[in-house]
């Protein structure tokens, strides 16, 4: 995957999340969401037989929720 595609996927996922979820109320809430998404990515990485598609999905989702922190709380 190249950088442009990755950034487009992250941007699209961020927009999708912002449409269906309420804004973060605090840095603590954002941190909890980011931590949860990180754990989901880590669980996929730890699998004996890697599903690259699932890892990519979780990585994009983690980046998207982190981007929300930058957009919504600054």
Topology of this structure?
Blueprint: H1 3-20, H2 27-46, H3 52-72
Please tag this protein with its features.
74 residues; mainly alpha; 80% helix; globular
Q: Helix coverage percent of residues? A: over 70%
Radius of gyration over C-alpha positions, nearest whole angstrom:
13 Å
Q: How many structurally independent domains?
A: 1
What is the residue-mean pLDDT, rounded to a whole number? 95
- What is the makeup of the main sheet? none
Spell out the helices and strands N to C.
HHH
Strand coverage percent: under 5%
Provide a descriptive summary of the structure in words.
The chain is an all-alpha fold and 74 residues long. The chain has helices at 3-20, 27-46, 52-72. The chain has one domain (3-72). Helix content is 80%, strand content 0%. Helix 1 crosses helix 3 (52-72).
């Amino acid at each position: 995957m190249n950088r442009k595609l990755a950034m487009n996927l992250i941007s699209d996922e961020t927009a999708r999340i912002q449409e269906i979820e309420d804004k973060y109320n605090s840095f603590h809430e954002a941190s909890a969401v980011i931590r949860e998404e990180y754990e989901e990515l880590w669980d996929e990485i730890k699998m004996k037989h890697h599903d690259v598609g699932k890892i990519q999905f979780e990585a994009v989702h983690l980046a998207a929720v982190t981007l929300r922190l930058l957009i919504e709380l600054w």
